[in-house]
Specification:
Layout (H helix, E strand, L loop, with lengths): L1 E9 L5 E10 L2 E6 L6 H8 L7 E6 L2 E2 L4 H5 L2 E4 L11 H11 L4 H14 L15 H13 L5 E5 L7 H14 L4 E6 L2 H7 L2 E6 L2 E7 H5 L6 E4 L9 E8 L2 E7 L8 E2 L4 H10 L8
Parallel strand pairs: 3-8, 3-9, 6-7, 7-8
Antiparallel strand pairs: 1-2, 1-4, 4-5, 9-10, 11-13, 11-14, 12-13
Helix pairs in contact: 3-4, 4-5
Bound molecules: adenosine-5'-triphosphate.
Length: 287
């Protein structure tokens, strides 16, 4: 269990990136959603003890994260949004190097590194330079290095960004496999990924948590209130959650208590919940 209380981060230029964040997160795969600039990376870096907040507290299991960052680091795996790699270093040499930095014993390295290479499907390319890896291989390497030391808390900042559909699917399989008996916090812009992989999601907007719940509870208030139409309704008939295109034709997702003209009922998705929260700017939604 991860408990965050009244967490605030004010950067030196006066930007409030986090404003009184309260979150209680169970183990398993947890999604963290929010638009650009919502504060996701600030929250992730703070949880990973890489920067200090202005105020607040964070407790992971029995660790007071802000008072005992070294204790946290021993149970933490972190994949940042982007990470540099040493040129000329092979995948296996870099994993050995990171394992030593993490304080793993030689015996632990000997067993864990081959296991992680197999898990992330990198055994065949273990002696190739990471600098020359494709985007997908690099992200799988990022997961492998984050898993060194068998961490209890795994923080992944946009792990699927820029991946092709096949690599994204491969990474999903990997994340589901590793999330058993860990708390995996997955930050992403891809709402679908969270809906597919996570049993709980938190939504951050302008540095504040506007929703955090188990997936069925997040979607429950939307049942029988989501509609789809190719025509834009009058503002009095429905709230337009978003407009997308299907085969080049407009497609409106709508929120209304009663069926808007020409609209058909559809099953609510996490994306509907996300857009509804954005529409209301984080204020309480009357559902
Ligand atoms: N070092 C910094 N100094 C000043 N402001 C910062 C700094 N880092 C982030 N910010 C600001 O804090 C706010 C939150 O940024 P953050 O990167 O945490 O958001 P995010 O949700 O991760 O965004 P994105 O999805 O675009 O990565 C933004 O307004 C950003 O400009």
């Amino acid at each position: 269990m991860l408990t965050i209380q009244n967490l605030t981060k004010r950067y030196s230029d006066g930007t409030f990136a986090l404003q009184g964040v309260d979150l209680t997160l169970p183990s398993g795969m947890i999604g963290l959603l929010g638009p650009n600039g919502a504060g996701k990376s600030t929250l992730m870096r703070t949880l990973a003890a890489l920067q200090t907040p202005s105020s607040g507290s964070i407790q992971f299991q029995h660790i007071d994260v802000l008072a005992e960052p070294d204790k946290l680091r021993r149970v933490l795996g972190y994949l940042p949004q982007s990470f540099g790699v040493y040129r000329n270093m092979s995948c296996i040499a870099l994993l050995e190097h990171i394992a030593i930095l993490k304080g793993l014993s030689r015996a632990a390295c000997k067993t864990q590194i081959p296991e992680l290479l197999a898990l992330t499907n990198l055994t065949a390319v273990a002696h190739r330079q990471v600098a020359n890896f494709s985007g997908g291989m690099r992200q799988r390497f990022g997961i492998a290095q984050a898993l060194l030391g068998d961490p209890q808390l795994l923080i992944l900042d946009e792990p699927t960004a820029g991946l092709d559909p096949e690599e994204r699917e491969r990474l999903h399989d990997l994340l589901v496999t590793v999330s058993a008996q860990k708390l995996v916090l997955l930050s992403t812009h891809i709402v679908e990924d969270v809906e597919h992989l996570c049993h709980h999601a938190a939504l951050l907007l302008s540095g504040k948590v506007v929703a955090s719940d188990a997936m069925p509870a997040l979607l429950a208030p939307l049942h029988n209130k989501i509609w789809q139409s190719t025509e834009k309704p009058q503002p009095s008939a429905a709230v337009v959650l978003n407009k997308s295109y299907h085969f080049g034709q407009p497609c409106y997702r709508l929120f209304a208590d009663t069926p808007p003209p020409t609209a058909t009922a559809v099953k609510p998705t996490l994306q509907d919940r996300y857009f509804l929260a954005l529409q209301h700017g984080g204020t309480d939604v009357d559902m």
